[in-house]
Amino acid sequence: MNAPIGVIDSGVGGLTVVKEMLHYLPNEEIYYIGDTARCPYGPRTPKEVVKFTWQMANKLEEMGIKMLVIACNTATCVALESLQKHSNIPIIGVINAGAQAAIKATKTHDIAVIATAGTVKSGAYENAVASLYSSSKISSLACPPLVPLVESGEYESEFAFDLVKKTLQPLEKNQFDTLILGCTHYPIIKDLIQRAVGDQVHIVSSATETAKQALDILQFKGIERSATTAPQHRFFATGSLPIFKDIATNWLPIDDVNAARITL
What we know:
Layout: E1 5-9, H1 15-24, E2 30-34, H2 46-62, E3 67-70, H3 73-86, E4 91-92, H4 95-105, E5 110-115, H5 117-122, H6 124-132, E6 137-142, H7 146-152, H8 158-168, E7 178-181, H9 190-197, E8 202-205, H10 207-221, E9 234-237, H11 241-251, E10 259-261
Parallel strand pairs: 1-2, 1-3, 2-9, 3-4, 5-6, 5-7, 7-8, 9-10
């Protein structure tokens, strides 16, 4: 089935999932929407996030996608279930994938999660980890400054590290051997986060596990792309295109990112 896979996020964070999808699903075409004009989703109400997520999903379904990846933790928390109920295509989120990655990595089952305020408030990671290993101890921290930092593109400065270190300071009182990056924006600043928490902490994200899950579904349903021509990926942003394209070009192994503005 030669239709594309749709990927949606509140901004550029979902590109971290796309990067892994390009590795594990190299023959698949990806259509991506980043809602950069209304990012971040973390402080927004669940009603708003559901509305925005449905708008992106509907736009991509109009383009004929065969599968949808909600590459945003906040949107996964509040919109995944309703979208799955009302869609005829497979739809997956990133919460369970992140929990699975943490359980694979941890030795002590003392796990920390950093995420948006919306994701932390939902308790989604606590529930997902507990469903896999009920004795795990979870510490969660909302990190509102980090998504705007990534979206600005100004994350390669010493100021950026100082901001990350200050934001993560409350975690210093907790004991944990594994840290879940509970927002798909955060892998872009993983090196800064690692410096802040120390090399003894194993950092995991949902990106790799999500890509593997997408591959499993394609194979199970027999809807893998059969075309032998090179995939033509398309990227869309609702906000500033130059910043979006710069971050996409720096992050993804694509020479010429085909990006355009989109109205939802």
